[in-house]
Write a structure and sequence with these properties.
The protein has helices at about 5-15, 25-30, 35-45, 75-90, 95-110, 115-120, 140-150, 215-225, 235-245; strands at about 50-55, 60, 150-160, 165-175, 180-185, 190-195, 200-210. The chain is α+β, with helices and mostly antiparallel strands. The protein has 3 domains: about 5-60, Arc Repressor Mutant, subunit A, CATH 1.10.10; about 75-120, no CATH class; about 140-245, Roll (SH3 type barrels), CATH 2.30.30. The chain has a 5-stranded antiparallel β-sheet. A two-stranded antiparallel sheet has the order 1-2. Helix 4 packs antiparallel against helix 5. It is globular, with a radius of gyration of 22 Å.
Length: about 250
């Protein structure tokens, strides 16, 4: 890797940390170089006024004020972007499929010619395991709107025994499993966290009432509960494993 490319990658690693210190050892391990090389690179970044702050025994933090072009991609990043877009084109909702195509077009428009050809030439795909498509009385678009609103939601739900019930819930996250959708919520009726299958929701209404806690706080509480629960179902485990990556 050229030194210039490595300096840009270091900046990206620090950006990715969201303000949390990153040690020279962690950076060196990811870039497969010696820690001494990273120390020299940090001096080089400081010499060109990149706002990197380091503290012995803690790590490096990228402070505000950095002005670099936002679209500097390497080959792996371009592959990842294209693979992600292709996954959404297969597994996402209709509006997301169209958005994925728009994202690809917008990225390609600002890439130099050689990178544009590489971008469109990515040979990675995300085929569906089944010919099924998501079907339900409530669209996934409605679910996503309810999630973003951070409002209390009333829904009618049919469980796996065919019993219909009305619930008031606080939406937290939506998990995409091929063509199934699971909406993680705090259920007021059960006074517990529940994952509702979207295809079993027959009616959904977003109320003009904010959820009492932020989605971030609720997700943290849910994850702490998941960690202490040894009797998770297979779906619960799959959902928690997937959502902790977000």
């Amino acid at each position: 890797m050229r030194r210039a490319d490595r300096l840009l990658q270091i900046v990206q690693i620090l950006r990715r940390s969201n303000g949390q210190p990153v040690s020279a050892g962690q950076i060196a391990q990811e870039l497969e170089v010696a820690k001494r090389t990273i120390y020299r690179d940090m001096v080089a970044l400081e010499s060109i006024n990149v706002p990197v702050r380091g503290e012995a025994g803690v790590g490096y933090v990228l402070e505000g004020g950095l002005d670099l072009p936002p679209l500097i991609f390497n080959s792996t990043e371009l592959e990842t972007l294209m693979l992600g877009a292709r996954w959404v084109e297969v597994h996402g909702d209709l509006d997301q499929q169209l958005a994925a195509k728009d994202v690809v077009a917008k990225i390609a428009a600002v890439l130099p010619q050689e990178l544009r050809e590489e971008f469109f030439g990515v040979s990675l795909y995300a085929p569906a395991k089944t010919k099924q498509r998501y079907e339900g009385h409530v669209s996934s678009h409605e679910l996503r709107k309810a999630l973003k609103a951070e409002r209390v939601v009333e829904l009618e739900y049919t469980d796996e025994q065919g019993r219909l019930s009305a619930r008031r819930v606080w939406p937290i996250s939506i998990g995409y499993f091929d063509f199934k959708r699971l909406m993680l919520c705090w259920c007021e009726q059960r006074e517990a966290f529940r994952a509702f299958r979207a295809d079993r929701i027959s009616k959904l209404e977003v109320l003009n009432e904010r959820i009492p806690k932020s989605r971030a706080a609720l997700k943290k509480l849910w994850w702490e509960e998941e960690q202490s629960n040894p009797r998770r179902t297979q779906i619960d485990k799959a959902f928690s494993d997937e959502m902790t990556r977000r």
